[in-house]
Amino acid sequence: MKQFKFPEGFLWGGATAANQMEGGFYEGNKGLNIADVLPGGKERLSILQSPGFNFEIDRDKYSYPNHEGIDFYHRYKEDIALFAEMGFKVFRMSIAWTRIFPNGNELTANEEGLAFYDRVFDELHKYGIEPVVTISHYEMPVNLVKEFGGWRNREVVTFFERYVNAIFNRYKNKVKYWMTFNEINSGLIMPIMGLGFSIQKEEDKYQPTFQAFHHQFVASSIAVKACHEIIPDAQIGCMILYAPVYSYDSNPKNVMYALQEERFFNYFCADVQVRGEYPAFINRFFKEHNIEIDMKDGDLELIKEGTVDYIGFSYYMSRTEIKDKSDLENSQGNLIGGVKNPFLKASDWGWEIDPEGLRISLNQLYDRYQVPLFVVENGLGAYDKVEEDGSINDHYRIDYLRGHIKAMAESIEDGVNLMGYTSWGCIDLVSASSGEFSKRYGFIYVDKQDDGSGTLERKKKKSFFWYKDVIASNGEKL
């Protein structure tokens, strides 16, 4: 069996998001965020992909699993000790914007929220684990959605700037790895979570979407510049959802269609944040869809000055495209569309499994940008069974992760500069797309069920011990 070697200092760890695990709903003077108003269960995905959501809580109709999450807010010491037992070098997490500015537009930060993350960071450092912090991970204050219209409103840039300055100054001695917006390009398919608004039924979706993107690009550049000034030894990256796009066949029309889809979804946001300018290919799209971006004097210069240090990205699946889909089966599980790839198997939720696609992705990204890369999300959502003796034999998760880690190792041999790997949902949490507990990703099982029952007890799965060996051997023992 081939032995793989990862670079010295490779950043092994796991990834989570505050809104999917913390709980502590309204505790510590926390405000209401977007995830707090999204119901759990099968309804969530249709809400995310349909127009007209009102951002209200309706407890008579829905359940809201994010309100309790897995109670990391009270159990973070227990969980971090388990991460340390696995040997994590880093832990990717997010700061909940509404813990720092409950309504988003306050003039001063909430001390209770700031102090909570002080305690979390101190606990991580106690074990030698470096936090990797996402500044905005689908946690926009609902007040900014209702009062200002989310990121389509330029005023939100000012509120975001106040937020980032507060956390950079507070945590400048505790956090050295940052990312601005989680899966920023997901706003193209799910603007509710990423851009903070729901497209209205009578509204053309492109104009407000790309205006909101522009405001996020400006805000990201402001954050990058502030980070470099306040924490000179820190690194700050962007974060994109990446899925390589394959042409269904060798018909040049389908190859061109796949290329256009790939550039539009995978590269548009990254081009702006990494290269510091709007890509040439987007101009034709703007022209054909009558999109006019309202820019302030100096915006393009600011974007050019505020480019990121590295690219963080999520990789779960590839995507297969054909111009005329009428005679082919759609790949139902893939949130980003496409047709079924006959060469790939799928997860319990229909997400196509493609380890080789991760190697392709890493090579494509590095060839295009020549900046360090960081795989900050990758994992298998699956049903897990607790045996009578309490064990959880998630060999399918081990197989999935082993294939993707091998793909990373091959890409490093290809010459890719890869910083690290944080497996998504290293501890079971609430699924972002479905609002379910049963869609489990973790090395650590949490006794919480879709009907709200459960003790929240933590159990180590078989993959816990496997990943511990992977980290201890720096990827040689797979």
From TrEMBL:
InterPro entries in the cross-refs: GH, GH_1_N_CS, Glyco_hydro_1, Glyco_hydro_1_AS
GO biological process terms, semicolon-separated: carbohydrate catabolic process
A molecular function (GO) term: beta-glucosidase activity
SUPFAM superfamilies: (Trans)glycosidases (SSF51445)
PROSITE patterns: GLYCOSYL_HYDROL_F1_1, GLYCOSYL_HYDROL_F1_2
Assigned keywords, A-Z: Glycosidase, Hydrolase
Record-annotated active site: E377
GO cellular component, one term: cytosol
Family, per entry: Belongs to the glycosyl hydrolase 1 family.
The protein's name: 6-phospho-beta-glucosidase
Gene that this sequence comes from: pbg9
